[in-house]
Amino acid sequence: METILGLCIGIGLSAACGFRVFVPLLVMSVASILGLFEPMKGFEWLSMPAVCIGLAIATVCEIAAYYIPWVDNALDTISTPAAMIAGTIATMAVSSGEMSQFASWAAAIIVGGGTATAVQMSTVAARGVSTATTGGVANPILSTGEWIGAAVLSVMAFLVPFFVVILVIAIVIWLVRRIRQKRTVQVDTPL
Fold it and tell me: Smaller CB count within 10 Å for the chain: N or C?
């Protein structure tokens, strides 16, 4: 049961990494410093105040950069592999000690990295559609929703992990449908 709980928390945190790379890591660090979360062996660095301050600065910089027109689209090229790595780290840091080291890393890469990448690719596609349809005017609204979503998912991953897994699946399905609808409308619209 502990393994399943760890994977559910990891999925929630990984999905949040897909929205914003540093927000879930900051939430994990704050929770660890407050004693609400104990990271797995090898991830104790999350409990260091200097790491928490560094993650806070990185979070503010990342959120601010997404409000700068055209920088947000350029940042997506860097954020995609970074989200995969952060999702893997987040999942590994909450995994249980019941699994072997190999199984833990495999699950973290597949589940955590895969979830973060799927969400990140959905946000990249949504930003592309937003840029194409509004000339980037709506991108700050999208950015606001993404960082708020990352913060809410990160906190909820610790509080209600099973619900978060269902929520993540629903969000991904909704984003995919929404993007397909936008693309269909663009293709069907005569020039």
Answer: C
What pTM, to 2 d.p., does this model score? 0.83
pLDDT digits (tens, 9 = 90+) for 31-52: 999 998 888 888 999 999 999 9
Place of tokens 């893997």: 88
The residue written with tokens 């987040």 in the block is 90
pLDDT at 16: 94
Q: How is 115-141 classified by DSSP, letter by letter?
A: HHHHHHHHHHHHHHHHHHHHTTTTHHH
Q: Give 181-191 pLDDT, tens digit per residue.
A: 877 766 555 55
Whole-angstrom distance, CA of residue 116 vs CA of residue 111:
8
DSSP-assigned states of every residue in 62-131:
HHHHTTSTTHHHHHHHHHHHHHHHHHHHHHHHH--TTS-HHHHHHHIIIIIIHHHHHHHHHHHHHHHHHH
| Residue 41, helix vs strand vs coil | coil
Rounded distance, CA 5 to CA 57, Å?
30
Give the pLDDT of residue 13: 93
Which sequence spans correspond to the domains of the chain? Answer: 2-188
Under DSSP, the state recorded for 42 is: T
The residue whose two tokens read 């699946």 is 169
